[in-house]
From TrEMBL:
<dbReference type="Pfam" id="PF19086">
    <property type="entry name" value="Terpene_syn_C_2"/>
</dbReference>
<keyword id="KW-0456">Lyase</keyword>
<protein>
    <recommendedName>
        <fullName>Terpene synthase</fullName>
    </recommendedName>
</protein>
<dbReference type="InterPro" id="IPR008949">
    <property type="entry name" value="Isoprenoid_synthase_dom_sf"/>
</dbReference>
<dbReference type="InterPro" id="IPR034686">
    <property type="entry name" value="Terpene_cyclase-like_2"/>
</dbReference>
């Protein structure tokens, strides 16, 4: 499998265009927020050297989250953007690559120290650069949001780190999960939980617990995470295969399950992703009129995030290298338009709410 996968990528596999008929928008404050965020990066000393600084800035994190929260006030958008820059830096150095990326026994205590730095309201002299920076971000979130919003974000952040720990444990033992386990893990390890948890902070409106905890709202949140995670697997395929041909992604999982070619796996993955998106769109349309204004703003933010993540991933140097001027083509129809539940227990309940 490893040889055929890298050979397909080297041959220049043509990925199917992305189906995403959701509305696109971007916050007009993105340039100002980007300037402020770069100043913050330099001020907190997050980057070890000029090369790392350039790599982090090239994530275009301000552009990324400005697509999730197109109507947010600049001062409320800024902390979310800072976390995205921080998240990419931490992910690259400690999760996908680097010393901890195949050492779960070392990753877990390091990650929990980082989580603790986010949660505690006071700094600590022993914090490393990642812990110190995320503590600063946590302080900003406490200012920008309510206690409920901050605790929701902290819980989502903990869920992300637990998913990464699972991913690293698999990497350490050379284990390729089946589709059920991969999707379960990816709902956490992709970072979608904290990314979407920042929506209500950026919007400046707390979603009532009676709405946020509805199974249907939880399903919409998980579907948005799943679609974005599968899009990210698509965006990063060539990059990952160049770094590690045995990386865990939806394509290696499908190849391990079904065999065949990478081209066939890309079609299967696109079909699975499109079925989830269609269910997301139908459920959102059904649920939205019954929600409060903050609740409607939140589910609208999920939709902006799905579209924004796809837009960003098709343009960002992180995935495209120097080819960021390539024309973006969108699919006119889904790869699979079935409305039947996907028969994978970890996600099939999305069709029952």
């Amino acid at each position: 499998m490893r040889r055929s996968l890298t050979a397909d990528v080297a041959a220049g596999l043509e990925m199917p265009p992305i189906f995403c008929p959701l509305e696109a928008a971007i916050n007009p404050a993105r340039r100002a927020v980007e300037r402020r965020a770069v100043g913050w990066l330099d001020g907190v000393g997050l980057c070890a050297d000029a090369r790392e600084r350039a790599k982090v800035i090239a994530t275009h994190s301000a552009d990324f989250y400005s697509r999730f929260a197109p109507h947010a006030d600049e001062d409320l958008l800024l902390p979310a953007v800072l976390w995205v820059y921080w998240g990419f830096a931490f992910d690259d150095a400690c999760c996908d690559a680097g010393h901890y990326s195949a050492r779960p026994a070392e990753f877990v205590p390091m990650a929990l120290r980082v989580q603790r730095a986010l949660e505690r309201p006071v700094p600590a002299s022993a914090d490393d650069r990642y812990a110190a920076a995320v503590h600063d971000i946590g302080t900003r979130f406490r200012w920008a949001g309510t206690p409920v919003q901050f605790q929701r974000f902290a819980a989502a952040h903990r869920g992300w780190l637990s998913g990464v720990a699972w991913q690293i444990a698999d990497q350490a033992r050379g284990h390729l999960p089946d589709l059920e386990d991969y999707l379960t893990m990816r709902l956490h390890s992709a970072g979608g939980e904290p990314t979407f948890a920042m929506l209500e902070i950026a919007a400046g409106a707390e979603v009532p617990a009676a709405e946020m905890d509805l199974p249907a709202v939880r399903a919409l949140t998980e579907m948005a995470i799943a679609v974005a995670a599968l899009d990210n697997d698509r965006h990063s395929l060539s990059r990952e295969m160049g770094q590690n041909p045995t990386s865990q992604n939806i394509y290696t999982v499908l190849l391990g399950r079904n065999g065949g070619s990478l081209a066939a796996a890309t079609r299967t993955a696109a079909g699975l992703r499109d079925r989830v998106l269609l269910r997301f769109m139908a459920l959102r349309e059904q649920l939205r009129p019954r929600l409060s204004a903050p609740g409607r703003g939140y589910v609208d933010g999920l939709a902006f995030g799905v579209r924004g993540n796809a837009e960003w991933g098709l343009r960002v140097p992180r995935y495209l290298g120097d080819d960021t001027a390539a024309e973006v083509t969108w699919a006119e129809r889904p790869m699979d338009d079935s409305t039947d539940p996907i028969p994978v227990p970890t996600i099939s309940w999305w069709w029952d709410v």
